[in-house]
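User: Hi! I'm a student and our assignment asks us to look at how structure tokens line up with a sequence. Could you show me two examples?

Assistant: Happy to help. In each example below, the sequence comes first and the structure tokens follow. Example one:
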Amino acid sequence: MTDIVPYAEQLLSGYTDYSDIINNDAFLPAFLLKNTGRWMKIELLYGNTPVTHIGRLYKVGVNYIVLQLEASSAATLICNIKDIKLITIIYDTNIKNLTN
């Protein structure tokens, strides 16, 4: 049985400074971080199935986002950034415009 902790340490030992990913707009997390709180339409691809989620961007990590789903729902979506295919940032605050 392999021990996962040494493997994780090996992965992280090569790159431990994530400040570029969070501060440089060339990286998606940094760009999204500046849009925290905005309504977004996130389009993902799971296998061959496209999935769309609409919600308010709640939090951004190095490799994930947290989306608070539509206002009428108490649900939260945590999504791996590499699974995202398209992001539409909505500047119009009218939630009904997001469904078009």
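Example two works the same way, sequence first and then tokens:
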Amino acid sequence: MKEYALLISFCAFAGIHRPQHHVNSMDQNNKKLGFVNGNVDINNQVITTDGNEKKKVARRRWAILAKALKSPSENEPSSPTDECSIRRISSFMLLRTQRIENVLQKIEDVHVIDKIDKRTWYKYCMNLYDREYFVVVGHKKRTFSAEDLMGFNNTGNICIWPSEETLTYYLVANLHLFENKSVLELGGGMSCLAGLFCAKYASAKTVALTDGNKISVENVQISMHLNKFSCPVSCQVFKWGDTKSDIKFDIILSADCLFFDEARSDLIDTMWDTLDVNGFGLVMAPNRGNTLQNFIQQSENKGFKCKKITNYNNTVWERHLKLLENNDYDENIHYPILIELTKL
């Protein structure tokens, strides 16, 4: 039922309405979504209900997924606006992507060579303080299966969201906060981008990269072979609310993990269970209606003290102000806000 609900959620995003008849409804949705024998045909376009405008909207929204499932453009940074995107604002232009070749020459572990070869590899770069910072992340070459798309809270599977981009930038701009600290990233998706940058540059004590989706975790585990770190790093499946952890962390990172109302309390409980009494959490997410405020309220009910920081970095803030001149930019859904959570 949980997987079916996630599929229906995606159908709503793509402009496909919930079927009125139960018989063969899953098969009908699979065909509309472009599922072919359990896989997604990313070149397929969705034909929806009556009305040409609805069809156009659905096609544009399907184009988002198709574009995201395909590899990012070689040597080209993300565009701050995307005409086919329901998000419209896809980047704050803080990161650049550059495709890299011949990565197998750097690999000594023969057991991972095949998995590495099945991915296209990209360097995610940023420049701060006259220095380049980068990590290497793999993108799967194959099509995504229905299971991949319907896995546990798999919103991070598709692309780098602005919240992850800005959290990573904030982290690199404040590396001193993470020095000799144990760090946990929750819901890191296919890249765990902030956690990878932290593990490489922050001189942390340890970094634990996690996501609830096994496909995401496997991708990050493979990506770890292409990066060198300054501390011990782990990566594993961690589903919020499943178990209580005896391990406490100094810092918890989470970017745009507030999509699902039903998962919010599990996220808060997990943060409470895993955060050290003297530690702090950094959650980056846009207001998105009442979503962020509801998270703050529930966190405070749990016992957290929450600090809402709108201007957390001058560069990000300047780009936000510039984007306000764009009619497509809606700060309610596009501008990530930083929430600092503490127990004291």
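Here is something you could point out in your write-up. Confidence is low (pLDDT under 50) at residues 1-50, 71-79, 81-88, 149-158.
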